[in-house]
Amino acid sequence: MRRLYEPMAYGPDPIAGSFWPTTVDAVPVHAPVNGALEAEIAIIGAGFTGLNAALALAEAGRDVVVLEAEQPGWGASGRNGGFCCLGGAKAGPATLLKRYGEADTQAYYNAEHAAVDHVASILDHHGIDADTHSQGETLLAFRPKDIAVLEGLAEEMRRFQRVESELLPRDALPERGFASPEFHGALTTPIGFALNPMKYALGLARAVQAAGGRIFGHSAVTKIGRDNGRHVLTTAGGQLRAKSLIAATNGYSSDDLPGWMAGRYLPVQSNVLVTRPLTDEELAAQGWTSHQMCYDTRHLLHYFRLMPDKRMLFGLRGAMKTTPRAHDQTRAIARADFDRIFPEWQHVETPHFWSGLLALSRNLVPFAGPIGGMENAWTAMCYHGNGVAMGSYAGRLLAAQITGEGPATPALLRSDPGRFELGRWRRAVLLFAYTFYGLQDRG
Ligand SMILES: Cc1cc2nc3c(=O)[nH]c(=O)nc-3n(C[C@H](O)[C@H](O)[C@H](O)COP(=O)(O)OP(=O)(O)OC[C@H]3O[C@@H](n4cnc5c(N)ncnc54)[C@H](O)[C@@H]3O)c2cc1C
Q1: Strand partners, 231
Q2: pTM here?
Q3: Which of 73, 164, 225, 280 has its CB 3.0 to 4.6 Å from that of 232, i.e. a possible disulfide?
């Protein structure tokens, strides 16, 4: 496997401190592939993308097998911040309109909304209790001039989502439970909710099995071959032959599985800190009592939410490398940012810190479509840090592309993302991006 990051990124250490495993009872262990297997459709990767594709395919009566290198939800899907919200493209509406025109851009924004609805209906339909909370999401201006950013987003929401967002000036923030010296205004958009990502991922895996899909754990695919019109996937324990293939590996992809992936995704690290439960007195002292999921107007944004058990989850992008040293440095940066934003909680312990990889694309738009140059092969990836909803829906869209039934994929999601420059050294792009955006984010 030709992967971009240090070996630590693909091992257990980045999630040793994750909060999510402490919230679930015994996690079922899926046995590895042992011997020769046949299926109609093979899926590599049991995250939100792969599991949603598997669920829709199994429910449509298709014979589907999921091969996961670790266990379901091991990747970004079982370790993210749980913001189920609009988003997916990093390119803004002006770029999308110029590149793809009005109709395709609107179809894409409709898909962002459909993605949130899709997750809500999966939770509901399959009885998955994922500790949901938050009425939409709230964007906070970290400097006075960013009120203009909030106004711009309100206009976008009006135009593309046909909803009215609520703009709050600085002096209204404390009474709404958003008191922090850092913020100068807020915009709440009434779409989306927060969830416990591990409960969602495990619930999805259960639903796949209940619908007749098979899931194998500890079954990393090391080779994709072709024999007699079938894809042949090799794992340490055996081989799976299947007519159709979905690669659902996103930030954990390899440049050679399949070769078309090379240069078409850029893994980026995101990091999360979680406090112990805060007391009511501590919440009152800070004046932060809202359970809204929030993010700020920085390019290198912070995302945070007071969870139902009164722990604060606090996330941030960044770190060029996944090494023990970088892990400790990023933890220290996260803690310093947390202390600045919530100064009354400087004494509050943050026992949980972890990180994982998401993916960006060269054209800054997610992809959900056929893999070029391969017959009967698809992939979906690059949700730009918004894969809870968009990754789930992209999996659903791939299933529809295979069966010919279900939601149509917007043209924009099927356009080839293109390759990053610098090949396997493309991570260097992040150094420029972090420096450039870091400068822009200065107060
Ligand atoms: C710390 C963090 C916080 C985030 N917060 C949010 C958030 O709040 N809201 C949001 O919308 N998005 C968030 N994201 C992004 C979101 O989690 C991802 O976009 C989404 O989970 C991607 O799902 P996926 O199924 O495509 O990929 P993943 O969940 O990463 O799954 C890919 C799977 O493929 C497996 N795999 C890889 N190679 C092989 C192989 N060769 N053989 C077998 N299996 C293989 C991996 O083991 C992995 O389990 C966050 C990401 C991170 C890392």
Answers
A1: 226, 242
A2: 0.97
A3: 225
